[in-house]
């Protein structure tokens, strides 16, 4: 099952970097697509996607991203709340996010739903990924041995992604060699090769640990109401 959009918002509130979370867990936001690296569905991210996560990251780093839960009867709504008096930089970032997502610039609340297309300009549609899709995407970052690709045992490693003329850092680096690695955080042998994460690669180590945590978000439970994002205007 896909990770619920409300769980994505909780991750952001918990301090996980919005750019990492959205690149890893989301196919699209209001039709703006992220990268996906697996098989026939492989695609590059839309240029607007990296603009969007850059603006959201600046808002998150400012501390202007808050979360509260509101319960009405049997319905539970998760709300993202921004401060009423942001500085000029944060206010500009908010405006850019609204423009990129095609949101009503005067609306104070935006419903968050699971889906690929928003029904109107007061709704944010997030198409989230399942754990299987997340693992398939991450598999595209594996450094595939040249022989395995030439013998058509698997797909070759895709070319590095470039956004707005700038190389995009991979979410994770999984190296390969025909010899056992000497300084690995995690390593597994497969056929005649070894695949591992370098113990000095903190970003990849952190993401690997985060993936283990993500499995808890796909556990079944009670259905929740649609979360609401509140953006004060004025």
3D architecture notes:
It is a single chain. The chain is of the alpha+beta class and 234 residues long. 31% of the residues lie in helices and 24% in strands. It contains seven helices and twelve strands. The protein has helices spanning 5-13, 18-25, 47-61, 88-101, 131-139, 146-150, 202-214, and strands spanning 26-29, 32-33, 66-72, 75-81, 109-114, 123-128, 162-163, 166-167, 175-177, 184-190, 193-198, 228-230. Strands 2-1-6-5-12-4-3 form a seven-stranded mixed sheet. A three-stranded antiparallel sheet has the order 9-11-10. The protein has a two-stranded antiparallel ribbon with strand order 7-8. Helix 3 (47-61) packs antiparallel against helix 4. The radius of gyration is 19 Å and the shape is elongated. The relative contact order is 0.19. The model has no long low-confidence stretch (mean pLDDT 83).
Q: What secondary-structure arrangement, pairings included, does this model have?
A:
Elements: H1 5-13, H2 18-25, E1 26-29, E2 32-33, H3 47-61, E3 66-72, E4 75-81, H4 88-101, E5 109-114, E6 123-128, H5 131-139, H6 146-150, E7 162-163, E8 166-167, E9 175-177, E10 184-190, E11 193-198, H7 202-214, E12 228-230
Parallel strand pairs: 4-12, 5-6
Antiparallel strand pairs: 1-2, 1-6, 3-4, 5-12, 7-8, 9-11, 10-11
